[in-house]
Amino acid sequence: MSVATGKSKSNLRQEIRARLAKISPAVRAVESIGLCDRLEPQLRSAHTILFFAPLPDELDVWPLLEKFLMAGKVCALPFFDAAAQTYSARQIHNLTTDLVSGKFGVREPAAHCAAIALDQLDLILAPGLAFDLRGSRLGRGRGFYDRLLAEASGVKCGVGYDFQLLEKIPTEAHDTQVTFICTPNRSVRRQH
Question: Does domain 3-189 have CATH number 3.30.1330.60?
């Protein structure tokens, strides 16, 4: 990583985190409904979907997980493998019995949940701090989602607020791209 790229990524992370911290629960709830309405048609056409458990400052996609689980879709969440220091995908069937608090305090599948190969996913919902029109994604800085996205097949959908979609963000060779970005008010396919 070049020093300039690292510093600009760090500065952008701080800026986005500051904006996220100012979003009220009421605004988050309204924006989450808008996002879910925009995402739902994409999810209908997928059979095997990797969701994510939203952090308190992220848009809430959980209602879609509940809905598509009830509809019989194959729904998975990232599972952190502490020994390998990587995320994999595990299928969930029951939101009451299949979830535990993971390493980072994020809801994730329990150890008894079956693994799903990352190349078997039709659609991957990916959170991020920022995205750009080229499909670049700025994560939280640990690289876990970059490694997961690099191995996953299927359509990769970045999920965030409208202000998290920027013209261009700093990237490095290991950063993975998403196919499109969905916000409460926009759906943007990656430009090449």
Answer: no
